[in-house]
Amino acid sequence: MNKHMKKILITYILVTTLTNLFGQHNKQVTKEQLELFKKSTTYVVMDDNQMLGYNITIQAAVKKFWTITPYKFVSSNEFETLRMNRNNSFILLTKVKLTKETTGAEYLFLNMLMGDSVKDINDMPEILELPLCYNGVDENSYVYKMGIIVRFAQEHVKTLMSALFLWTYRNMTYYNLDIRDIKKKTLLVESGDLSEDVNTLDKIKPYYPFDVRIVTRDVIANAVDKQLPNTLILQVVNPGKDDAVGRSYKIIYGVDDNKMYYYNFEKISGKSPAGFLIKDFQRIAGT
User: Fold this and answer.
1) Helix, strand, or coil here: 75?
2) Are strands 260-267 and 247-254 parallel, antiparallel or unpaired?
3) Is pLDDT larger for residue 75 or for residue 98?
4) Does residue 181 carry a pLDDT above 90?
5) Least confident window among 18-22, 131-135, 246-250
6) Is 44 exposed, middle or buried (0-12, 13-18, 19+ CB in 10 A)?
7) Over the stretch 144-162, which tens digit does the pLDDT of each residue have?
8) pLDDT of the residue at 206
9) Cα–Cα dist 48/55, whole Å
10) 254, 277, 282, 281: which is closest to 266 by C-alpha?
């Protein structure tokens, strides 16, 4: 597993109470801790670093879709005390820097953690870690998809609760087992998330001759909100236009069933530019 540095975004403001944290992926949650989750209150931590769009959309999505546990919205100061209690669960925004990368790229992830009396946030039991965007990229690149992100997070917890072996879900690529169902549904994508060689329907068709539609952000936001049947959306985590380094994450969600159908990431290079590539379309087409 990649070693990475993770820090809560609020460290920029609360420098006296939070410091940079180094280590591996958080230790995976156990079955016993999932039992505690069922009885927990989930504390959704608001970001103090001017991430207004995130704060608004995470609150709206949780209020509308979160049913698995009681929840409360708390500040970063409250989190520092609450996280020591193993009976509490948390949803929070974290900043991740992969230590094996020399690019210096930083990513924002949505994390679900269980409380524990540990000094380092990296030692808190982890339920889920999902990439949202590169640090510094406009948060509008992902906040309109927050509804499906929250719904998938909830379904992921339910999946873990019924799983025979938790380690099989340690890597999100487990969900690629459902790739074969993608071509049976309508896939909505934005042109800006596609690499140049597949950024039109004519260019896509030779590699993916199924129902794919290039649409606007508003269409995707509506699909997420209305949970349109048999509809999938693409989320791509790319660097800014002037920064072509780091990783490109590609995720496909089902907006009606709240499932993940595809998860992949690649190091950006001349041979693998940022965005959804020809080989991604070939993979989901089964060729």
Assistant:
1) coil
2) antiparallel
3) 75
4) yes
5) 18-22
6) buried
7) 999 999 999 999 999 998 8
8) 98
9) 9
10) 277
* pLDDT, mean of residues 164-171: 74
Residue with the two structure tokens 């991604």 = 280
Report the alpha-carbon distance of residue 153 to residue 174 in Å, rounded.
15
With tokens 């329907």, the residue in question is 201
Count of positions (residues) in the chain:
287
pLDDT of residue 90: 98
Query: How far is it, in rounded angstroms, from Cα 87 to Cα 271?
Result: 47
Enter the tokens of residue 12.
């920029």
Helix (H) or strand (E) holding 214, with range, is strand 212-214
- Which two structure tokens, joined as six digits, stand for 97? 């820097």
Cross-strand bridge partners of residue 234: 252
Residues 6 or more apart whose Cβ sits within 8 Å of residue 118: 124
Q: Which two tokens stand for residue 177?
A: 């087992």
